[in-house]
Amino acid sequence: MAVSQPPRQSAGIRLSELVGRLGGERVGADDPLLSGIGSLERAQPGALTFLAHARYRTHLAATRASAVIVGGGDRDATALPRVVVANPYAWYARAAQLLHPAPPVEPGVAASACVEPGAQIDPSAHVGPGAFVAAGARVAARASVGPHCRLFAGAQLGEDSVLVAGVTVYAGCCIGARALVHAGAVIGADGFGFAPDRGAWVKIPHLGRVLIGDDVEIGANTTIDRGTPDDTVIGDGVKLDNLIQVGHSVQIGAHTVIAGCVGIAGSARIGAGCRIGGAAGILGHLQIADGVEVSPFTLVTRSIAEPGKLTGYMPAQPHERWLHNAAHVRHLARMADRINELEARLAAVERAAGAGDEPLPPGPAKGTN
Amino acid sequence: MAVSQPPRQSAGIRLSELVGRLGGERVGADDPLLSGIGSLERAQPGALTFLAHARYRTHLAATRASAVIVGGGDRDATALPRVVVANPYAWYARAAQLLHPAPPVEPGVAASACVEPGAQIDPSAHVGPGAFVAAGARVAARASVGPHCRLFAGAQLGEDSVLVAGVTVYAGCCIGARALVHAGAVIGADGFGFAPDRGAWVKIPHLGRVLIGDDVEIGANTTIDRGTPDDTVIGDGVKLDNLIQVGHSVQIGAHTVIAGCVGIAGSARIGAGCRIGGAAGILGHLQIADGVEVSPFTLVTRSIAEPGKLTGYMPAQPHERWLHNAAHVRHLARMADRINELEARLAAVERAAGAGDEPLPPGPAKGTN
Amino acid sequence: MAVSQPPRQSAGIRLSELVGRLGGERVGADDPLLSGIGSLERAQPGALTFLAHARYRTHLAATRASAVIVGGGDRDATALPRVVVANPYAWYARAAQLLHPAPPVEPGVAASACVEPGAQIDPSAHVGPGAFVAAGARVAARASVGPHCRLFAGAQLGEDSVLVAGVTVYAGCCIGARALVHAGAVIGADGFGFAPDRGAWVKIPHLGRVLIGDDVEIGANTTIDRGTPDDTVIGDGVKLDNLIQVGHSVQIGAHTVIAGCVGIAGSARIGAGCRIGGAAGILGHLQIADGVEVSPFTLVTRSIAEPGKLTGYMPAQPHERWLHNAAHVRHLARMADRINELEARLAAVERAAGAGDEPLPPGPAKGTN
To answer: C184 — contact with chain B (CB < 8 Å)?
Structure first.
């Protein structure tokens, strides 16, 4: 989307045309000409908006949008021209793509680009100012290599894929079709592997590649290391946010989404359809099943065999209270021992009381409790 | 400061001249010629140093510096030539800027830069080697676009602002005056927004911009995403350290400072004058009041309505003790239940004892406790 | 290793030649010609593999590799041609480097590079497409400045060192010999230092440098800030993974290894031979002794005077259980108070019981416990 030019404002699309292209049921007599999108609260006349959740229904009456996308249960929640669909948010996303299409890729190689002999650039592809494409690298049809991107020897970029700017694709690494790789991402740097030897470290050569499937988005300054000895593999439809670190030989299953600042250590295998929250971590060599959700700031230290949501961060508090409470975290084991001891001693007292004085007398204390 | 050339050593400035320009009261007969700065312990003759805290007073006697900046309470703590000011550290910072001025911006466009027709470059601005400025982008007076920076269509860089090297400013994003953006920062990549649809993800077009105020500093490889549908807004005087992730449509109030490795999720609104510690996190759609302080490694999961300091990290311990204690974190609820139970049982025992044996006799055990 | 070309497959090296060059004892009559490396499970015929740990012995029988490296205790664990060495993994690393040598550096400056007059480039060094080397910068023998790297005034790159691509070295910063700096790393940006002054922040000029020793590896998009007023110093043999933030005036001792996403605040001094786990943090001005190990996700808040392993992360759990338990973290101090109170009350009850009924009678309850 956000490439070298701003998304274009469309000349306008009739609601009926959107419905014709995307499906759904159009309700209402008017067929407004739509020129953009907006939230319920801020949309301007001419805009398409959507109601994704019942809690926003109160904003519906006041919206200035010209049409609204609703779910089946909200069919009659407004008198505005509307589309009734099963998934309003996804329909909104697709309609937004039609209303604000990405600028087309301009075929050709910029004069300032450096394309080595032996690089294969499809005639329909774009290579931007200052970009570097090494011998043996391949850029497929309609792909776009933005300014100052570099594809080293044998790197491949698939059809309709975009490297926005300053992206590095190391030797032999492959990106599939329709990828969007944001500025500064680094694909295929060496993983962090060294053999300890008498107080120093001997580098393990990293001979595996990074293989990235189709329809993948990779955020700004995210890094994905090459494997050793096996390849690092990112499945189809995976979405990675900014500043994520993916270690060597990691595997990420299809359609898994990972939020910003996550770190994934080497050789972890993450299933398909997982959702990893921001700044989470996954230790090396773990296996995470399909459909696992990891909360933000949570470190996964063991393999997860079943879908489900995993959480492990320290709750925040006002600093003084945290100081008070956190001190005891360091003594939880002792605290548990004391509870054990209390239980044993109390049981002894109870037995003793029971022995000498059984049953417990209904005394005056009872009423005071 | 640290741009393409090292800060210049000044030919020397008299202490009296610094006082003339920055204010403060000069004490002592000598008026040394100062050529640089330094810490109390390492300053060389000719250097200006400062005493910001009483705990460093012991270093004052031994310093080799030629002049020292002190607060009112330390007026007589040294016989060195000195300046008495309300805020020694801020005065030191300003004096250091005068003693080591940043090199002036060299007007002109490097031969290897790629400036598209329709880009507006002020004649006093600098565009460095290999930089790319797209049609419709604007570079204001005395601004500097370092090597391999890219400003896409409609991007704007304000007066006296510096992009050091390899900085990306996506289409339509605006940076105010006197900004300093360090190498590798990415301004305006798409936010992380996808609508789930039958096991896959539909991209939400990101149509908002990033708007950055005046006097902002942005650290190396920090990423600030564009908004959807609203803009991402960074207030005047905000300071962002390295490797920070700012999500789509986030708002950060004036003069807030954020340390390295922090992640801020989409649509969070952070007030003015906040201080966010390193590697902290703020979840999406939260509102943080002005003047809030967040400790390092702390995840903020709720809106904060009042100033104050929030903390939430797990205390570190020797590994074996941590293993011991951390195991109990997983059973705190059970531990709390057991305490509840103990209290109830003990109360029952006390009632029983009280019923049969009231008041508690002053027995021999008392003396042994 | 992974630079502009893929590691080269060697024409083949006899096992006896590897032993001749690297030491070790060759066992078995055959002297296979080896052309590559592989894991026990995936190695192909012609490959060299290794057995680093007894738990992988089960894979040894089935391996298709042509030779295997073993420790002394596994000398007879296979009939394959083998090398017996003290440290199989380190020997494997060195053999892999011989079997897959990095491509040689091609001397010369690319036509599209921008080398200012006054830059010193050794004739045997390589300066790649679009790279920028400022006046006063120095590139030593056989060093390689990859595409779009920039060395500002006075920066130095040592012999045989490699900047892969898009690396920034700020003015005056020095990198030693045999360094490998991955794409997007930023060496020498200003540290995060500002003096508060009436609600705003005054920048502290950063005049120190970054000094990096020999044999250092720096990961992709890692940032190392320059110091103020003292230099930031990275010792010989240090290995830094991707996306690490090293603050101003930090010192890191020789052969310390730091995993991805770690943040180190200003003026921390880390000893030699330390191991810092992924996404750990170290607060400013701390001193960490030699040989300290820090677990992943652990924040170090105090100086560490002795070797040892430090840990402090919150254990992860299924989300519902975490909710249950984490709530009590906020009330640990109260929980501790209640245990204190229980102990006091129980002691009183025990004393009372002891006073009235001493010794405790051996009652029927005893047998039920």
So the answer is: yes
